[in-house]
Design a protein that fits this description.
62% of the residues lie in helices and 0% in strands. With 197 residues, the chain is mainly alpha-helical. It folds into 2 domains: 46 residues, no CATH class; 107 residues, AhpD-like.
């Protein structure tokens, strides 16, 4: 289920595309320059619509840099959490970008495929299984049971609990921005089938 069925969220024209140059303010330019300095790249994905609120974009990008580069979780764990958020929101751009990154970082393709299908993945490590249960419960139930919390606490400590919650929340927020903007997936990247509601 890594296939190419388009989500209903992106039907219709893209919204909140790039800020036209003739509408750039000094703050837009500062935000764009700060992003290029920090990321070493042109604006992409959710940061294109976020630039409509330049101060917010800079602050969100800074949080993303921490969660991507300095969190306690290595990529083979953090990417599982990102995929869970992308699946929950049926976020095509996020999935098309992060599914290949997850696999490259060591996530078994069968795990990504099961998350895409909305089923519990096979062959997870104990750490991946703990995070899968924690993050899936968080997005589906809007909270975490005592048993799930205690497993995550034993595995990752309080900092890990907070950062797992933050990663799930951050990529959920980006998914909402991307779904609202109808940002298309990366060309040629994997996409998600709609979830049954």
């Amino acid at each position: 289920m890594l296939g190419a069925v388009t989500s209903p969220h992106i039907f219709g024209p893209e919204r909140l595309g790039p800020v036209p140059v003739d509408r750039f303010t000094a703050r837009h330019r500062e935000a764009l320059d700060a992003f290029k300095r920090t990321r070493g790249a042109e604006l992409f994905g959710p940061f294109i619509p976020l630039l409509w609120s330049p101060e917010l974009m800079v602050r969100i990008a800074a949080l993303g840099e921490y969660l991507r580069e300095r969190t306690v979780f290595p990529p083979h764990l953090s990417e599982v959490m990102i995929l869970i958020a992308a699946r929950h929101w049926t976020q095509q751009y996020e999935w098309s970008l992060h599914c290949p990154i997850a696999i490259e970082s060591g996530v078994d393709p069968a795990i990504a495929g099961a998350i895409a299908a909305g089923t519990r993945p096979p062959r997870m490590s104990d750490e991946q299984a703990t995070l899968y249960d924690f993050c899936t419960e968080l997005v589906r139930e809007q909270g975490v049971s005592d048993a799930t919390y205690e497993r995550a606490l034993a595995a990752f400590g309080e900092q890990g609990i907070v950062e797992a919650t933050a990663i799930t929340g951050y990529y959920s927020m980006l998914a909402m921005v991307l779904n609202t903007a109808r940002t298309p997936p990366e060309p040629g990247g994997p996409t998600l089938a709609p979830q049954p509601r």
